[in-house]
Design a protein that fits this description.
This protein has 5 helices and 6 strands. By secondary structure, it is α/β, with parallel strands linked by helices. The protein has one domain: STAS domain (Transcription Regulator spoIIAA, 2-Layer Sandwich). A 6-stranded mixed beta sheet has the order 1-2-3-4-5-6. A hairpin with a 2-residue loop joins strand 2 and strand 3. The radius of gyration is 14 Å and the shape is globular.
Length: 148
């Protein structure tokens, strides 16, 4: 994937906005610097026009540290109202039961402000994203929610 404005790589986190309002985020193994890059990209993403749908692929992700989970929980709290209004849905691809447990615990502490679901495969995540994108009407980028 090219390192362009539509597809930015933050070390081991890739943001693909080429089919906006469909946004695909792929995680690899990440440390604090990469996690901060992810948070910076999220700040930029929420400045873009709404609505949007996200596919967050954690298939190859490392488990977030306690500090990273706390930072994400804080960010979700700070941006709760904006996310509630701007995000039609988020499909989290989480094949790992451990990761599903980590995310579930995070969302108990700080409920996620938009519709979401955990799915074990990218294919199922794309299907959910197409459903949410269909609510935005023609030309919404729904055709971009394809591939694996």
């Amino acid at each position: 994937m090219q390192n362009s404005p539509a597809s930015r790589r933050t070390e081991r986190v890739v943001f693909d906005t080429s089919a906006y309002p469909f946004v695909r985020i792929r995680f690899g193994r990440f440390g604090d610097a990469e996690f901060q890059g992810f948070m910076d990209e999220m700040e930029e993403l929420i400045k873009r026009p709404a609505p949007r749908v996200l596919l967050i692929d954690t298939t190859n992700a490392s488990i977030p540290t306690q500090a990273q989970r706390r930072r994400l929980t804080q960010w979700l709290s700070e941006h709760r109202e904006r996310l509630k209004g701007d995000v039609l849905g988020v499909a989290f691809v989480v094949p790992s039961a451990v990761m599903r447990g980590v995310l579930t615990a995070m969302f108990w502490i700080q409920p996620f402000p938009a519709p979401y679901l955990f799915v074990p495969t990218v294919t199922e995540g794309l299907e959910a994203c197409r459903h949410w994108l269909s609510k935005t009407g023609p030309g919404s980028g729904a055709s971009g929610a394809t591939g694996s």
